[in-house]
Amino acid sequence: MLKSIKIKNFRSLKNFNMEFNSGLNVIIGENDAGKTSLIDSLKILFSKKKIDMNDFNEIENPVTIELEDNDYTYFMESKVSEDTVINTFKIKPSIEKSNQIKGELESEEFNSLDEDEQKLILKKYCTTFNTTYRSNSKVETLKENIIKELEKEEFTEVKSLNYPISFLGSREFENIDSFFENTFFKELKEEIWDYKIEGKTINQHIDDYIDNFKEEQLNNENAQELNTQLKEFLPDFKEINPIVTSEPKLNLKINVELLNTNNQQMLLEKMGDGTNRRTTLAIFKHKKDKNDLVYVFDEVETHLHIKAQLDVLRLLKDLSKIGKQIIITTHSPFLINQVKLDEIKLISLDADRGSQIFELDSTTQTQITLANLGIMNIDLFFTSKLLIVEGESELKFIPIMYEKLYGYPITQNFLKIVKADGIKDIPNFIRIIKNSFSKTDIFALMDNDADEETKERLNKWIENGMIENSNIFVIGQKEFEDTFPNDVLALALSKYISDECGYEVNIDVKEIQKIRKSKKFSKSLGDIFYNMTYRGFSKPTFAQYLAFYAEEKDIDEKFIRLFKLISD
After folding, report:
1. How far is it, in rounded angstroms, from Cα 413 to Cα 392?
2. Which positions fall inside the OLD protein-like TOPRIM domain (predicted)?
3. Which of 64, 220, 395, 520 has the smallest C-beta neighbourhood within 10 Å, fewest atoms?
4. What digits encode the pLDDT tens for the residues 138-148?
5. 22 closest CA partner among 35, 3, 5, 38
6. What does the alpha-carbon distance between residue 26 and residue 464 come to, in Å, rounded to a whole number?
């Protein structure tokens, strides 16, 4: 599994570090924050994409990508020299992996294998460490070369880096022809050279043929003449020894047809992107039990409707449950809200336009509190302002009143409104939320009936910089409802009762005036409502009626100041 990556000087990834989860990694962030650059860096590291000069943040400095998994560290350095990009690839096993390989090659179990079986194991490590392998090489020689590489303290330079990783871009679809070739014929391409004929593998037959051919060529008249001429001009010359390395490859031409229930060919290229995307995901679902350990999807939701997006997420979670590592980028709020908080990594740009990873506090207490407040993952990462209100009435009133005054929803300001369970809980919620919303401006709207303990806790958070004093708004003489003029209260209550009764009712302003000095004003309003409807009075519903029938001149000026702060 991938553990961590360090990237320098690659686009906005100037000095970028990130640790991977062993299961699902959901990379989110605004456009141009560096999400695709992170995916591209993995592609470049494993030769799935080329780097060019436009990728260098500073052309005079090298791009470096260093990726660590449980067994190896993979490294790539790119430099620009005379308008040419020069890439160097290196690999280094961990101490544990080195000891494991040496132990394997020196074990009794390895020594008990026949020569062909030993060479298959050695061939794999020769490929990894870029050491010469020939089918007629001696086992001991191959072992010595590999162990020599393992004992180096520095990285081993290799031609390229390989890893069991699959990529799918936002506008890419799996090519079915190549998929079938790599899935069903890959073993044939790789193992056919080890197929034995008359006791020898095809590879050995090829090597023997090359050796015989080389000997014939070196002994013919033309070679002998060249030998004589070289001795004449090079006194120390002995003989010509050309080294011929065979790299047998098998090219297969595979064309795949998908047939429908009428036995007709399904032409995917003429179907929509959504169909092609689903076909691709079906292929990846089939591949989940295969050798790839890591699946990387850039903007996995592209071309898919909501239900299909959630189906994709279910597939990805299933893959992670069977030991696969998943790395996806997404803009989809549906996907972001369906994963665990600690599976999300936000890429954002710092003051110098460099990409950095930002992760939120995901402790149990925080997650429970946020869930109770109705705060979803998408709010945590993209909300810039958060308003805590004391009760349900304010929660209902504010969005309606704001849109009525400004002509657009309050959420357009990237604001989230959450309800505390009473005024005593507001200081505690400020503390917990500020730990998660570290870069978010917090506002609080509360009734004028806080006790001394609550006031002291609020003052403490103001002193600690968790909330600005100017961002706390205390309304009413005691509660939300008593901030409104009598005529507005009478009109809103009349409309509420009329809608409940089914006929028009008009509450006299004098009745509101009578209850103004009652100990609990909202309870007295509820009594009027009950005496006329014989139904329970809902303060949140009444707050909505107040929002529909109040005008700007009718609301507390503190609401106006709050709305202006939120709009800035």
Report:
1. 21
2. 381-449
3. 220
4. 889 998 889 88
5. 3
6. 33
Which structure tokens are listed for 149? 């590489």
Structure tokens given for 265: 């060919």
The yes-or-no verdict on residue 422 having pLDDT over 60 is no
Taking only the tens place, the pLDDT of each residue in 365-376 is 666 666 665 666
Alpha carbon distance 75, 305 (integer Å): 39
Burial of residue 149 (number of CB atoms within 10 Å: 0-12, 13-18, 19+): buried
The C-alpha angle 553, 556, 561, rounded to 5 degrees, equals 95
Q: Which token pair is 290?
A: 């295969």
CB of 200 closer than 8 Å to CB of 208: yes
β-strands 2-10, 13-19: how paired? antiparallel
Alpha helices in 322-353 (DSSP H): 333-336
Enter the pTM of the model: 0.68
Distances (CA, A) of 325 to 165, 293, 482: 9, 6, 57
Q: Are 80 and 54 in contact (CB under 8 A)?
A: no
Angstrom distance (rounded) from CA 412 to CA 399: 11
Report which of 443, 441, 442, 526 is spatially closest to residue 479, judged by C-alpha positions.
526
Convert the pLDDT of each residue in 303-330 to its tens digit.
777 887 888 888 888 888 888 899 999 8
- Give ∠ CA 84-90-94 in degrees, rounded to 5: 160
